[in-house]
């Protein structure tokens, strides 16, 4: 298995070098040169595996045996030792047509833990093997930062800097990042939105001199390791569904902002997992919904919502989908991404739109609808949704058909977004780990959205 760039100007890489590269050196995103196909017979065998066993089987198809089996198993065991449920990502049946995949049982109570706790172990492993300091740089709309920091805090050979938009994440998300006092962690609270933070990150990874000088590594979903780790729970969730004698079509509804999580589902489907509909759930920052419905990919006006982790206008992983949509033609991808940079939009014709709609359906939930669904499912099913999960449920209600089952992803614990829960007149009990955050002091630098100032802080931190 070799890895190539969506823009075609990077020499084929092995697995470890692909992960270390993060953003491809030509500005594209790394993807496998070929996607392995899983037969129905293998799927049947996999359906009996535990989560960690399934993880090892899937990764074995992609790692080129660059990591010895025992080393990989040790990393997986360490990664999921802190999860509060033995199934890692348990499935909760709501009724005969709806199942909820709970992805919030990791240390920071969000789905990002599933990939990022493993990524922390991976970077620590590589740092020791190569005897090199690794400098991790990432941007977050809330959950990525906390999960990444938790995955590497205190680890020898690793420093991490996370940019988050000032006052545009939930209080719990902010505290999970900024109450960490380890010397290898820097939090920059940027006066701007997530897209501003993300652009700075991409610019620094595109600066190959800066990237090489500081041994810069990525934790955002531009890194293929994040995508691959997330495919595991698509397979695992599918295998947990009670199908009976007459199997139904299985849809999956995914709260989506940066297109990484839903692309993991697209990858799982291309591998052979028989998903019927991949449902993109968004909030009022609905660039992905507008793309699927109209064929126009164009950022709109930024809106702050009850689901801040999806308050994103430019979805980094969209380019990976574009590569496959364009029949793996890297030259066409490069041309379209250049046009997007120049014109600020991509427009697909009617014929192309039919193909897009064969891959996805999409629904954007309003703030009001989000709160209504939180109240509805608490009252009717005694299940408390966080606002991102509520967007997923809104999309499920819009698109799940008769004789279909939907697995909707619960991407965060509701305690992380109590601001929205309180508006529903619901009082929830905080887990002790979250409750304790409010008594801790914070460590962050509030900084203007100024690239030069941010780079200066990065240089100082990495050179300590």
From TrEMBL:
Biological processes per GO annotation: threonine biosynthetic process
InterPro entries referenced in this protein's UniProt entry, alphabetically: Ser/Thr_deHydtase_PyrdxlP-BS, Thr_synth_N, Thr_synth_N_sf, Thr_synthase-like, Threonine_Synthase, TrpB-like_PALP, TrpB-like_PALP_sf
Catalytic activity: O-phospho-L-homoserine + H2O = L-threonine + phosphate
Pathway: Amino-acid biosynthesis; L-threonine biosynthesis; L-threonine from L-aspartate: step 5/5
Keyword Transferase: no
UniProt EC number: 4.2.3.1
Cofactor(s) the protein requires to work: pyridoxal 5'-phosphate
Protein purpose: Catalyzes the gamma-elimination of phosphate from L-phosphohomoserine and the beta-addition of water to produce L-threonine.
Organism expressing this protein natively: Paenibacillus crassostreae
Protein name: Threonine synthase
Domain Tryptophan synthase beta chain-like PALP residues, every copy: 98-396
Keyword terms, alphabetized: Amino-acid biosynthesis, Lyase, Pyridoxal phosphate, Threonine biosynthesis
């Amino acid at each position: 298995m070799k890895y190539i760039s969506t823009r075609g100007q990077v020499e084929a890489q092995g697995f470890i070098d692909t992960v270390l590269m993060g953003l491809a050196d030509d500005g594209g995103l790394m993807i496998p040169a070929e996607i392995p196909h899983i037969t129905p017979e293998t799927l049947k065998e996999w359906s009996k595996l535990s989560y960690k066993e399934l993880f090892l089987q899937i990764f074995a198809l992609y790692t080129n045996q660059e990591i010895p089996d025992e080393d990989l198993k040790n990393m997986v065991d360490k990664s999921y030792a802190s999860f509060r449920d033995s199934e890692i990502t348990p499935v909760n049946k709501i009724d005969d047509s709806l199942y909820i995949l709970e992805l919030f049982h990791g240390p920071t109570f969000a789905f990002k833990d599933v990939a990022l706790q493993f990524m922390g172990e991976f970077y620590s492993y590589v740092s020791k093997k190569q005897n090199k300091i690794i400098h991790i740089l990432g941007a977050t709309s809330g959950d990525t930062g906390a999960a990444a920091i938790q995955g590497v805090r205190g680890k020898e050979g690793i420093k991490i800097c996370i940019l988050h938009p000032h006052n545009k994440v939930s209080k719990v998300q902010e505290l999970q990042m900024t109450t960490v006092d380890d010397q290898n962690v820097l939090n920059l609270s940027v006066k701007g939105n997530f897209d501003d933070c993300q652009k700075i990150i991409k610019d620094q990874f595109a600066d190959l001199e800066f990237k090489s000088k500081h041994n810069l590594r990525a934790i955002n979903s531009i890194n293929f390791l994040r995508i691959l780790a997330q495919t595991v729970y698509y397979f695992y969730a599918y295998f947990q569904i009670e199908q009976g004698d007459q199997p139904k079509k299985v849809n999956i509804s995914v709260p989506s902002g940066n297109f990484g999580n839903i692309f993991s589902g697209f990858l799982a489907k291309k591998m052979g997992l028989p998903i019927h509909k991949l449902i993109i759930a968004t909030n009022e920052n609905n660039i992905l919904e507008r793309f699927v419905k109209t064929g126009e990919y164009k950022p709109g006006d930024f809106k702050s919502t009850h689901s801040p982790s999806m308050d994103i206008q430019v979805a980094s992983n969209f380019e990976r989908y574009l590569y496959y949509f364009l029949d793996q033609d890297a030259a066409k991808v490069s041309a379209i991404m250049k046009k997007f940079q120049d014109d600020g939009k991509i427009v697909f014709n009617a014929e192309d739109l039919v193909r897009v709609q064969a891959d996805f359906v999409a629904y954007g939930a309003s703030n009001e609808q989000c709160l209504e669904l939180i109240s509805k499912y608490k009252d009717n099913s005694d299940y408390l949704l966080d606002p991102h999960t509520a967007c997923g449920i809104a999309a499920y209600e819009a698109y799940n058909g008769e004789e279909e089952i939907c697995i909707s992803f619960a991407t965060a614990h509701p305690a992380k977004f109590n601001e929205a829960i309180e508006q529903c007149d619901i009082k929830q009990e905080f887990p002790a780990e979250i409750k304790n955050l409010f008594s801790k002091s914070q460590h962050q630098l509030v900084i203007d959205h100024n690239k030069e100032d941010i780079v200066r802080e990065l240089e100082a931190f990495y050179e300590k």
